[in-house]
Amino acid sequence: MTLKNQPLNEGFTLIELLVVLVILGLLAGMVGPNVMKYLGSSKVDVGKAQLEDLSAGLDLFKLDVGRYPDTEEGLQVLVQAKEDILGWNGSYLRKKRIPVDPWNREYYYQFPAEDDDYALFSLGADGQEGGTGENKDISIWD
Fold it and tell me: What is the H or E stretch that residue 58 is in?
C-alpha cells in the first residue's frame, strides 16, 4: 500500500498557532499575579518565623546573662561570645548564624526600646518604614 495520493498535513496553520498563543497569554495574565502574591506573602511568613527564632534566642541569652544584649552588642552576641559577658552559654541560635531578612537585609535590633523590652524588626520589601502588604514592616510584636 502506498501513500502517494495522501495529502501532506505537516504542521499547524498560522491561525491555530495564534489561537494557542492568545490562550497561553490569557492564562499567564490570570495566574501570574496570583503566584506573585503568594510569593510575597511567603516571604513575610519566613520573616516572621526568623524573628520568632531571634526572639527566642534573645530570651535564652537573658536567662543566662541576666539581661538582653544592648544595641552596640547587637544580635551577633547570640552566636559569638564576648569575653566580658559573664554567664554566656551560647550559641543561642540553632544555625549558629544571624539570618538576614527575606529581602537580604539585616534585621534591626535595639535595646532598650521605647515601648517594649527590645525592638526587633524588618522594614519589609521596600526597606522603608511603614508600607502595606509585602512592604509592611515585620515585627515580633505584631
Answer: helix 14-65
Greatest mean pLDDT range, 50-64, 80-94, 112-126 = 50-64
Range 120-142 burial, b when 16+ CB lie within 10 A, else e: bbbbbbeeeeeeeebebbbbbee
Partners of 139 in the β-ladder: 121
Give the residue among 109, 137, 108 at the shortest CA–CA distance from 124.
137
pLDDT in tens, 36-80: 666 656 888 889 999 999 999 999 999 999 999 999 999 999 999
C-alpha 58/C-alpha 103 separation (Å) is 22
Grid cell of 11 as nine digits: 504542521
* Among 139, 85, 135, CA closest to 113: 139
Domains and CATH numbers, the chain: 43-139 (3.30.700.10)
* pLDDT of 11 above 80: no
**Computed from CA positions of residues 115, 119, 123, 124, in that sequence, does the dihedral angle turn out positive or negative?**
negative
What are 54's three cell numbers?
A: 531571634
Does pLDDT of 107 surpass 90?
Answer: yes
Query: Across-strand partners of 110?
Result: 119
